[in-house]
Amino acid sequence: MSTILAFAGSNSSTSINHQLVTYLTTQLQQTSFELFKLSDMDLIVYSEDEQRDNGFPSSINQIYKHIQAADGLLISVNEHNSNPSAFFKNVLDWLSRLDRKFLDGKKVFLLSASTGARGGMSALEVVEKLIPRFGGEVSLTYSFPSFKENFSIEEAKISNEEINNEIVAKLHQFEVLLK
Measuring CA to CA, which residue among 116, 111, 66 is closest to residue 91? Predict the structure, then answer.
């Protein structure tokens, strides 16, 4: 059975992207998963000086090991000013210094969510272009729009049936791609 590593590229304790990824893991049918919360990581901002003087943070080594053990990744990126958050970019910077091809051979279902109608599409597009540089393959993408209107935080699930059917169908398609 294939394994998916699922996480959001956010360091917010109330991340809507993490809520989306968490819900989607409950919809997996053909794969096992590990849900990872990047916001639990203790990370200093990357710099060559920091790397030279102190090496790699243990949290980067930890996420790297989880990525290597997974067959595929389910990543939901948050958007700050039409770009992925500085936090997520920092995670990518550290990982790429540890191993430039840290995603080598990994299939990725890349998502984004925001409270706006575009659903974090700009950040998704930026990260979609970055993933192949690290050896990964973006197999599918989905931009989740108007989170507050389409996701029930109380029930921890997508409340818009049409969106739910669409994204879950893509999720199942991703599971098939991992076989």
Answer: 66
Amino acid letter, 63? I
pLDDT tens figures, 3-18: 999 999 999 999 999 9
Q: Please, is 95 exposed, middle or buried when counting C-beta atoms within 10 Å of its C-beta (0-12, 13-18, 19+)?
A: buried
CA distances from 173 to 30, 32, 101, 169, 176 (A): 10, 15, 25, 6, 5
Alpha carbon distance 82, 105 (integer Å) = 28
Looking at 26-85, list the stretches that DSSP marks H as alpha helix, in order from N- to C-terminal side: 48-54, 58-69
Alpha helix stretches (DSSP H) within the chain = 16-25, 48-54, 58-69, 86-98, 121-130, 147-150, 161-177
pTM of whole model > 0.90? yes
